[in-house]
Amino acid sequence: MLDATYGNPNLKPIWADQYHLGFEKRLTDAITLDTTFYYQNRHNLPVNNTATHFVDTGRGRGYGMELLLRHEITKHFFGWISYTLSRAEQTAGTVGNLDSNGMPGALTQPVTGTFYPTPFDQTHNLILIASYKLNANWEFGTRFRLVSGVPQTPVQGSVFDSDYNTYRPVDGPLNSTRRQMFHQLDLRVERTWIFNTFRFSAYLDIQNVYNAQNPESTVYDYRYQQSAPVRGIPFLPVIGLRGKF
To answer: Is the pLDDT of residue 126 over 50?
Structure first.
């Protein structure tokens, strides 16, 4: 972007200011609650511009709350509940190809007044972790994740490019839809044998216990008329052995 021919060597450095406010409360001898609120501003983000290739008028921001309820490691149990409520946004010209009217097309003027979700925006992020140690030989654990789908730009159709004998997609409004919510449950059980000079363990990990069909991306046919999701990890059991001397 700083190249004199294809970019703009006069771009200012990107910089950010961040603010945090948090507190920690011990509810019992083993349970603590940790809460943090945050806000971040980003400045001088490069924006496509037909006259100078790039200008540094883009802005970004991120804000939200992080909550952690944690049970310390005790003789039999440990675990935590983590929840994040957040937004990650940038002005339109920095995250997509919108014209001055906010419509798909060639960018004629930098659009800096309206914020749009970035491709990394996840409004809700919930993680539950628990591990129970029955005795010196048996341990059981579980993890559950629930995450908002990331924003994506829908394809509304296509046009035929006769120069290259192929179809080109026509995008809809920038990041105006989301993938479906991600959710997954994992389980683990481990059996340990203890000898005089070493420990030997066998474990079973089961990922995606109920075989949730979480989409990772979207694929289209060659004319962009039909689409299908690319699914993530399926039901997956894993058996392992481990030794420690």
So the answer is: yes
